[in-house]
Structure formats: C-alpha cells, structure tokens
Amino acid sequence: MVLVVLQANVSEAGYVANKAVLHNVEVNVSDGEVVAIAGPSGSGKTTFLLTALGVLNNLLSGWVNGRVRIDDIDPLDPLGFQKIFKVSGVVLQDPEKQLIMPTPIDEVMFILENLGVDVEVASRKSMEYLNMFGLSNKAYEHVENLSGGEKRRLSLAASLVHEPNMVFLDEPTASVDPWGVKEVKNFIRNVKERGKGVLIIEHKVKYFIELIDKLYVINEGSIIKVLSRDDLNDQAVLKEVRELGVDVTPIHEVDRRDVSNARYVGGDVVLEVDGLTCWYDGSSPIFKDVSFEVRSGEVVALVGSNGSGKTTLLKALSGFHRGCSGVIKTKDGVSQSGKLGRSVFYVHQTPDYMFVESSVEKELLQTSRFGGVDLNTLKSMFPWFNELRDLPPYKLSLGQRRWLSTLIAWGFKPRVLLLDEPTAGLDLYLMRQFKELVGLLKRSGTSFLIATHDPRVLVEFADRALVLKGGRLYEDDVFKVALLLESVAGVY
Amino acid sequence: MSVGSRKRSVRYTGIDLALLAVTAVVSGVIFTANWTFYYVIEAFAGPIGARLLTYGLWFIGAPLAASLVRKPGSALLGEFLGALVETLIAPQGGITNAIYGFAQGLASEVGYAVFLYRSWSLLPTALAGFLAGIPAVALDAILFEVVGTPFEMTLWVVAAGLSGLIYAVIANLAVKNLRR
Amino acid sequence: MARAGFKPSSLFIYSLTMASLAFIGRSVEFLLIPAVVNGVLGFGLGSRKIGLKLLVALMIINVWGALINAVYFSNVGTTLLDLGFIKINSGVVKAFLMVSLRFFLVVGSTLIMLSLSNARDLIKSLESDLRIPSSVAFSLAYAFRLFPLMARDFKEISIAREERGLKTFTLNPKHLKTLLTPLLSVGYERALWAGISSEVRGLSSRRKVRSNRNLSVGDLLIFAALSAQVLTAFLTELTLRLF
Known about the structure:
- The complex is a heterotrimer.
- By secondary structure, chain A is of the alpha/beta class.
- Chain A has helices at residues 45-52, 55-58, 78-81, 95-98, 104-114, 119-132, 148-160, 178-193, 229-232, 235-243, 256-260, 310-317, 360-371, 375-380, 385-388, 398-411, 428-442, 455-461, 478-489, and strands at 4-14, 22-30, 34-38, 63-70, 88-91, 166-170, 197-201, 214-219, 222-228, 269-278, 287-295, 299-303, 324-330, 333-335, 344-347, 416-420, 447-452, 464-469, 472-476.
- Chain A has two domains: 4-253, P-loop containing nucleotide triphosphate hydrolases (Rossmann fold), CATH 3.40.50.300; 259-489, Rossmann fold (3-Layer(aba) Sandwich).
- In chain A, helix 6 packs across helix 7 (148-160).
- Chain C is an all-alpha fold.
- A two-stranded antiparallel ribbon of chain C has the order 1-2.
- In chain C, a hairpin with a 4-residue loop joins strand 1 and strand 2.
- In chain C, helix 1 runs antiparallel to helix 4 (90-116) and helix 5 packs antiparallel against helix 6.
- The N and C termini of chain C lie far apart (53 Å).
- Chains B and C meet through helix 1, helix 3, helix 4, helix 6 and helix 7 of B and helix 1, helix 3, helix 4, helix 6 and helix 7 of C.
- Strand 4 of chain A pairs antiparallel with strand 1 of chain B, so a sheet runs across the interface.
- Chain A: Residues 5-245, 271-491 form the ABC transporter domain.
- Chain A: It is found in: Cell membrane.
- Chain A: This is ABC transporter domain-containing protein.
C-alpha cells in the first residue's frame, strides 16, 4: 500500500502580514516517490520548503494559511514543529551553512542526541553512517578540514542517520562541483530504494530527471504545471518546461553551432604565465609548471573540481598566495610571483567581502576615487542605480550584489578580472544577467579569467577553457569540457 | 486555519543561538587583540587615554549581540560567550575573562532592561555600552591592583563608559546595514 | 571512545578555582605557591601545545603591562630608585609582584586546562558533566565550528580592502565598522541557515545529554591538586601572619 508521507495544501503564505508569496500550492509525496519542485529564483520554491517544514511560521515569524502533514505530524503547529525532526531529514543548499558542529561525529550524532538515543548507541550508529558516506577516517577532525564534497556527504549522512520517512533537499547541487552532484544523485537513488519519500527543490532538474516521479513547476508563488513520469520522457513537453526557465535539457541537446560561432578571438596578450608552481607551507605542489596566456577582451574559463587549485591559481596571479615560483607577466610589468599592482583584480564569489561603504552610491564613489573610472560611467553601468543608490550594498539581491562587486573590480581598471565561481547559486535567468554584465565589461577590452565548474559558463560565455587536473593545466575545446562536466555529474 | 506568530517570542531559537555564536567569535577575537592595543596605548596615553580608546572594545560583545538578536538576555549572553571564546582561543587573561564578561554583560543588560526591552536602537545601546565601564573598573581594582582616589576612579569609570558608548554605537550601526 | 582518564570539566573547575584564588588573594605570600606551581606546569605543558614563542610573547606583554600599571597606579611608599624623571617607590614593586603572580596563576591554570583538553571536548563535557544549559553549549559548539570560517572571512575581506586601496585595519572607528559589517553580513546569513538546520534537527527538543561516566582517578587527582593548593595558600598566609 502506498502511503502519503507529505501532504501540503497551502492556500496562502508569506513573510510579512498581508503579503502572500505562495498561492494555492498543493504538493503530495508518497513513500518511495521522488518529487521535484522547479522554478526560477524568487518563484517561491524555497519558501514552499520552509512552509512545509513549519519553519516559515514557527521560526521566521511568517504566516501560513493551509494544511500540512508530514507523516501524522502537523509542522505548522508549534508543538508539531518541535517533532518534525523525528520523521524528516533535511539537506539545505549550502553544506557550509548547514553544518553546525565542530566535528563530523558531533554533526551526525546531533539529531540522535535530540531524539534521546543512548550515547553509546548514538555514537556507534553515527560511525556506521560516517562510514557509509566514506567519512569515518575524518570523524574527529574539524569539519573545516573536509573538502567541499566531503561536507556535502556529511550533510547527507546527518539527514539520514535517524531513518526518517521523508527527506527534503533544497537545491542540493547549488554549491557542489559535478563530482558532488553525482554523489547527491546516488544518495537520492538510495533513499528512494529504501522506500522513503523525497522532495527536491531544484532549478537544475536535468541532473535528476531520470529519478523524478513527479515534477511541479512553480512560478510567482503558484504551481503552473505538474508533470508525470511519462511527461518527463516527452521531448516536446520538456521543451515547453525549458521555456519556463527550468534547466531540464542536457548540453548536447543545445544547438552546438549557436555556441561555437560566438567564440571571440582576443587581441594582444595581456597576461602571460610561465612555469608557475604553487604550494602550501611545506607540502607538495598544488599544481606544477602552469603556463598560459590571456588576450585582451577574452573570457577564459578555468575549470577543475573542488580542491584542484583553481582558487589558489587566481590568488597567486593577484599576489595573495605566498609560496609560488615561476613568471607572471602583464603588459605593465613582470612579476616574480609577486603583486601585479592593479593589472589584475580578484573577486570572491561572496560579494559581501568586497563592500566597504554604507550605500551603493558611496561604493561607486570610492571606486571612482581610488580606481579612476568616471563616476557617471559607473552609475550608468549599474542598471538599478536610481532605485537603490541609498541602500546599503548588503541589502541588495544576490544577482545585484554580484553585479556590483564585479563592477567595482572593473572600476579599478584591471586588464584581467579574476572571478571565483561567479555563477554559484544563480539560476538560468540570473546567470544570463551576469553574462550580460561580462559582455558589457568585455567591450572595454577587459579580459576575464573565471574559475568555475559550471557547464553553463562554458557553453554560454567562455571563449576558451583551461582545465586544471591532477596538478597540471591544459587547454581544451570549450564545448568538450562542458560535456565532460555534465557527464561527470551524470547527465546523459 | 491561519498560523502565524504575531509577537516576537522571548524564547531563544536556533537562529538566535547561532547569531550569538557569530557575535561571540567576533567579540572573542576583538577581546584578545585588545590586550595588545591596551598595553601599547597605556604606555603612551596614560590610564585615562587607554581606557577611553580601548576599554569599549572589551564591552562590544553585548551591544553586538543585543542589536542582532534583540531579546532579553542577549546583551549578557553576547558579552559572556565572547569572553568564553576568548578564554578558549587564547590564554591571555585566562578564565578571569569569563568573570569580567559576565559582570560587564550584566551591566550592559541593564541598559536595555531600563527601556523595558522595547527598544534596541541607538539610545539603549549607548547606555548599555556606558554601563559596562562600572564593573570593569571595579574588577580591575580587585584583580590588577588598579586602585586610585575616588576622584580618579570616577574618571576611569567615565572614560571606560564613554569608550563603551562609542564602540556600542559603532556595533549598532554596523548591524543596521545588514540584509534581513 | 577512548579518552584521557579525566573529564575536561574537572579541569574547568580547577581553572576556575585557581582564578578565584587570584581574586581572593591579597598578599604575595598567599599567591606565591599556587602561582609558581601553575606557572611552571602551565607554561611547561602549554609550550608543547601552543608554542614557546607565543607564550613568551604573551608573558612579555603582560609583565610589561603589569609594570606600567604599577608605575601609574601604585607609586607610593618609600622611594627605592630615583631615575630623575620618575621615582620608583616600594608600592610599585609590591603591585608588580602581585599582578605578575596573579598572571602566572590565572594563565598557568588556564594553560593546563587548554593543554590537557581541547575546545570540543571541553564544551561537550561542560554540557554533559557540568550541566550548563544546552542552548549555551550549542552556541559555544557552533562558535567553535565557525572559527576557521570566520578567519577565512576576515582574510577575504582584508584582500578586498587591499585591492580597493584601503588600509587593512586600524583602531579608527569607521574602519572598525566597515570591517564588522561584511563580517556580520556573511555571519548573519550563515547563522540564519545554521539556525534553521539546528531546529529542523530537533534543537528545541534537546535534553541535556547526561554523561554516564563516573569520576575517575584522573578527576580525583585534579581535585586533590586543587584542594592541596587552596589549603597551602591559606596556610602559608596564616603561618607568615602568626610569626
């Protein structure tokens, strides 16, 4: 007999009074069923998750009109909310934010301790789950000694150790590389086989498409389409869904000619790297003998798995990684693994690190004063300037903050902008918005070196691809690399 | 059925506790670094100058936490947890930090309590920062033999209090710009 | 899990008691023996775990601070030394000795605690053995989890500031604010999700985790050392006062 493990019928819900974010959302998940909710950023998909878990009204002082049941527990009721951990496992978007304990063993044991399981039993069971996820040798290490992929696995182990009937995953692929995506995929398959219900919130549905039994497409807070398993096999239906902004199609089905014709051949060489080797204190090199050049106006993607040394390479180029040998040359001078002055500018994926002022206008003013680009030019290149000028930069949306931090970096007139994972957490729409910015800045002759493992960057706007693998760097065809990344993630 | 919480509950949620941890780390590091600032500045600027310039940094845990968490007890917990973190990361001052932290946090808590926990804005925050100066000077007298005439001690309390006020205001303004 | 034969919380009690001694003690005699014992033991154990260089630097800063403080606040009594621009009186020596002894007592005992335990075990033990509120224990554990993350935040913020042509950090209040805001902004978002993550995993149902371990020989030794020092301190002072 099939049992419904999640039953949600939300007529309205929101964060502030009288402002509904969700309207008539009805979602059901039975045991052994994998259900996905897809939609662009701001469509309400994460809000729905928070509603279904009772987080919205019990923790975030929001409100809900409707009825939700997980097993036989009502998460909307304050007392029910305190019990939902017994029947549900939750995997959040960013493992770094989800993990709350100093060591993996404490992380996995946390929920068992809260269930009142005897310490000895809880400890044994936690080790068993760490083992299952390949983490038993790191059980007592500080969690920050784990790689990105290991952190993701730890968050998966911690969501399953108490054997819940229902597992929720909020954009589980947003902050992992293709290798991590594959692990998440295996996890979902495993949970499904155990006969539990799975709800995935995700815009990159293509990663899980063969596992999904039912797909809800959400937009502006309402379910606009429900697709069955049969629909998901129908290319015509998928095409329709893609037009709604949901990433359902693998790259090899995108027209290849569209992509390859757009490649830009750069001008003069602006950055030349020769025989660069970098290491951490006293350890073997992270990468060896790396050589490449970047030409003006080019967008070069630097591809590699988490921990392959992409960030170290960018930091080395900008002079923030000590411990390198080799030659880095720009038009403005040669550097023996030292600083290149303002020839390059490193931008982290967290835009907040970049801000130093209390309003958007002051940020641009500082940039103009210290960087030398005319203030009006900067203003004209920030599309939301007039409405947002007095707002603290921290209050902008993620897309706007990424735009602003990149614009600030450009304002210092570097020849090459070094961007670290600039599309992490961006949906198809926001990614295209970012592409628009890169196109805009490129026109001034600025080059880009973008560290990424996002196939979309390669397909949509990279001119060249450099691959960092096993400590070596080589150049490859952009499209081929994109396909490789997707196949690693398990998209066929 | 409509479910929603109208008034802010006084119970500490996981989010509040995690925020307290954030401010504890920030203030714990500031507390640790401040020892060096204090001794260096005291050599040049004397006891009053040093109190005015650095003491407030040792009180910043309370206004940071209270401005972020906005619940009764958050000032005390913020300062106390910051001091515990300081004890755990650096032996500088050792476990007496925790005693200072508790006393200063309690004094800052009074700043918000006299406003009946209705406001977490600049005014109560400034008061909270100022009040922490009293226990700080008192504990100095007991532990570090820093005893002067009543007039001198009053001056020290005022200097430490003003310093607390300044840094409390900074903490409050820093929190204001956040997205939430 | 095989661990050392004592509870980290016993060390915490030990360290806290020694700090209280430092508060109570008002004479050199009282503080002398505990200060020497804890100073030698603490710096000996601590130099292996924390590094001798750091500890010596710490000691110099504190001795220097104690001296400055003594000159400022306790320059009374008979003149011992006249340097021309300043007279050093007997009060300076007494105050300097007192503050230095307290320093060795407090820092030494804290170093013993930190060397024989680690933050994670200590926090766990405070929760299960000393029964501190689980909410406070959660905050401390999460703070300890956050530490390397926030160190990284600070590093990235410093990089961005340097690229934007700004000084990394000064005591200037405006600099402090522009450093705090991004740090708190990133911390706030992290705390929000960490808080949700803790609540959907049953934080509010968390009972105090009770340890089923009894006091071991190690614990008894710690408490014996504690009692012996408290007794010695009081007895020394008493003896010297009587004769």
